[in-house]
Specification:
single chain, Molybdopterin biosynthesis moeA protein, domain 3, 7 helices, 29 strands, elongated
């Protein structure tokens, strides 16, 4: 069997994205669409605002009638009506006239400017203006949205602002890509579920819970599978009849005697790549078993989570048709507050904290030990410092960092 090995992260991303099958669309109520990915572009069904309207509470009038108004020499207009938001003034504002108006209310015919309430006083149906009315306080029709124009694109992830725009365009329900079903399978004799008794040499199953959170954040549905001991037969049996879009395994992908995920894909599956020139997470394996895409993550907790965030997200984004930038491509410039040591030919992703210096620039400092088994170092991290191959970054050097969720 031939397969790519020790490939770059960029090469791994291409292979992952190329193996993801596009998911079908479904329509969901807008109230349930937060975080979902749009399956098609949405044009506006309405003009917003539907008519010229007022940007503030005040009085609508003709700007020409208010020229020269000051506190010492106010201009007086005749008050001929009132128009609250949601209503349309039935008449027309003539010369020397004004109509009371409220934020969002349509500007009456004949009026072309607004004077705020704080610059006007009313007495005996007369409005005294202490400054000229402002045409700029008239918001023109379709200033925000124009009927037929697209404001939300296919592949866009719906955040709070996008949901507000969808509602303003008239959508009570929206077409979104179905959520990918992502299986999570922990392997190894040493794995114990939290809350169960534990003996020396065993570890609690932290990977599955961290991955469940990352899958949900990436727009998928995490499907927890029962843990599997280090047994090739048991592993093979656990992979039968799974209705998933992707299977994540943790552990069993390195070069040891008990790395049975590796053995199963080599013997009965297909390997698309094994080993990526990255640290942590180098022994990651991507292949398929019985047509099911399988991303084999290292067992070390930090490696497992970082590999999913940097590589696994590419598969999910492609399946969703998402145009959201991948974490790997989302970089911020920073200055090194501590040294960061590279790892030979591998690209290193070091856990780091961020703070601002006196000039408002990011400073990245190591969280301390970079052991893949020290999960609390990831808890303390704000970002991953990117260290190119064959490089050591010294204090004061410039570098790039990848912001972490939360």
């Amino acid at each position: 069997m031939t397969y790519p090995s020790q490939i770059t992260v960029a090469e791994a991303l291409v292979l992952l994205q190329g193996r993801a099958l596009a998911l079908a669309a479904e329509t969901v109520p807008l109230t349930e669409a937060l975080g979902r990915t749009l399956a098609r572009a949405l044009p506006s069904r309405v003009d917003h605002p539907s008519l010229d309207n007022s940007a503030l509470d005040g009085y609508a009038c003709r700007a020409a009638d208010t020229v020269g108004a000051t506190e010492e020499t106010p201009v007086t207009l005749r008050l001929v009506g009132d128009v609250p938001a949601g209503n349309v003034f039935p008449g027309e504002v003539g010369a020397g006239e004004a109509v009371g108006i409220y934020t969002g209310a349509p500007v009456p015919k004949g009026a072309d400017a607004i004077i705020g309430v704080e610059f006007a006083s009313v007495s005996d149906a007369q409005v005294r203006l202490s400054r000229p009315a402002n045409p700029g306080d008239v918001r023109p029709k379709a200033q925000d949205l124009r009927v037929g124009e697209v404001y939300l694109e296919r592949g866009q992830r719906l955040n709070a602002a996008a949901m507000g725009v969808a509602a303003a365009m008239g959508y009570a329900a929206v077409p979104v890509t179905q959520k990918p079903r992502v299986g999570i399978l922990a392997t190894g004799d040493e794995i114990v579920e939290p809350g169960e008794p534990i003996r020396d040499g065993q570890v609690y199953n932290s990977n599955a819970y961290g991955l469940t959170a990352l899958v949900a954040r990436a727009g998928g549905v995490a499907v927890r599978l029962p843990n599997v001991r280090d047994d090739l037969g048991l592993l093979e049996a656990s992979l039968s009849n799974l209705e998933l879009d992707l299977l994540l395994t943790s552990g069993g992908v390195s070069m040891g005697r008990y790395d049975f995920v590796r053995d199963l894909l080599f013997e009965k599956g297909r390997v698309h790549f094994w080993k990526v020139a990255m640290k942590p997470g180098g022994p990651v394996l991507f292949g398929s078993y019985d047509e099911l895409p399988l991303l084999g993550l290292p067992g070390n907790p930090v490696s497992s989570l970082i590999v999913f965030e940097l590589l696994g997200r590419a598969f999910l984004n492609a399946a969703l048709g998402s145009t959201e930038p991948l974490p790997y491509h989302t970089r911020l410039p920073a200055t090194a507050g501590t040294p960061f040591k590279g790892s030979g030919f591998k690209k290193t992703f070091a856990r780091a904290t961020l703070h601002f210096d006196a000039e408002g620039r990011y400073v990245a400092s190591s969280t301390g030990t970079q052991s893949s088994g020290v999960l609390r170092s990831l808890l303390a991290a704000d970002a991953l410092a990117v260290v190119p191959p064959h490089t050591t970054i010294e204090v004061g050097d410039r570098l790039e960092v990848i912001p972490l969720p939360d």
